[in-house]
Amino acid sequence: MAEFLPYGRQSIVDADVAAVAEVLRGDWLTTGPAVERFEADLAAVTGGTPAVAVTSGTAALHVAYAAAGVGPGDEVVCTPMTFVATAAAAALHGATVVFADVSPETGNVEVPAVRAAITPRTKVVAAVDFAGHPAALDELAQVAHDAGALLLEDAAHSVGGTWRGRPVGALADLTTFSFFPTKNLTTAEGGAVSCVDPELLARARGFRNHGLVRDRDLQRFPDEGGWHQEVHAFGLNYRLPDVLCALGSSQLSRLDSFVARRRALHARYDAGLSDVDGVATPVTLPGAQPAWHLYALRVRDGRRRALYEHLRERGIGVQVNYVPVYWHPVFADLGYRRGLCPGAETFYAQELSLPLWPDLRDTDVDRVIDEIRGFFA
Ligand SMILES: *Cc1c(COP(=O)(O)O)cnc(C)c1O
User: Fold this and answer.
1) Same domain membership, residue 282 and residue 170
2) Which of 130, 132, 293, 298 gives the lowest tally of CB atoms within 10 Å of its CB?
3) Burial label, 196 (beta-carbon count in 10 A; 0-12, 13-18, 19+)
4) 43 CB-contact burial (10 Å; exposed 0-12 / middle 13-18 / buried 19+)
5) Is residue 83 lining ligand 1, measured as CB closer than 6 Å?
6) Ligand 1 atom 3: the closest Cα is on which residue?
7) Could you read off the pLDDT of 9-19 as tens digits, one per residue?
8) Has residue 1 got a pLDDT over 70?
């Protein structure tokens, strides 16, 4: 039996292990200098945008919505073609999620759909760079800003990519990242929020750490004593420990090679599959230089499930990304109905993510291509 190929996995080298071990032997396991170092290293790949490291991509979304001031009575316009966390984190702040449909070709949210979903209550527009392909971020920012709302880019798939020459992380008011092992770089669990605006940044930092205020100049009771810290707004503990930040910095030093390898593998799939009847290979729009997280094949003849099962039986760990968010019973129970976003439902019905990770070999890709060609032959 041939080796099982997951759809994604981490790439760990001895330098990563050494970086973690060094922190483990030091004084600071958490809240130490490796955190700021990782945040600075991340800023170096996002056009200098300051970053706040947190414990997951989901935490990053929860922090970003908190920084934006999202609460009960507010609306968040969100893509349905994403992992549930993009919408759930807004709902947990008490906001109403309004879904705007996506392109059935790219899986990215469409600008006219976002414009139509905006109301005076809209606080945030949340887009996802599906598979790593940047959304139409400049148009989306314009639409959001015209409505007095902020643009949040869930860049869980796209760290290392660029859109119209500008790096992901420098394009939206708030950008969130995930460093889960299948993503473009990993800290095991981890994430970050990037933002330029100093007020948003301060609120993000505050929410990450219980809202604690240590700066005496900002305290209401500064004469309480040297130990004193006080809370002005509720927060949580979403601090990413030094141990994991060290892994993140070590991984970031290889981000360019990860991105290059992902692009090469993506191109190899394209070359091997573009002439297969019944499938469509992923679209790249002018202006996009994606850092591909997923290879999102579309299976056009209604045989996606059969192909999924065929490949799984042959040890190829394909995945489907994603069930439209509002199909989850938690949203269905709130009254969201199937049929709400036909583009997303079409995309979901066709999508199949093929194995894609930096240490995947060309021969592995050829094996996947051969199995797909065999299925359609
Ligand atoms: C992975 C992912 C998340 C959640 O990140 P975690 O680190 O797993 O919490 C959020 N949004 C998208 C689009 C993702 O792919």
Assistant:
1) no
2) 298
3) middle
4) middle
5) yes
6) 57
7) 999 999 999 99
8) no
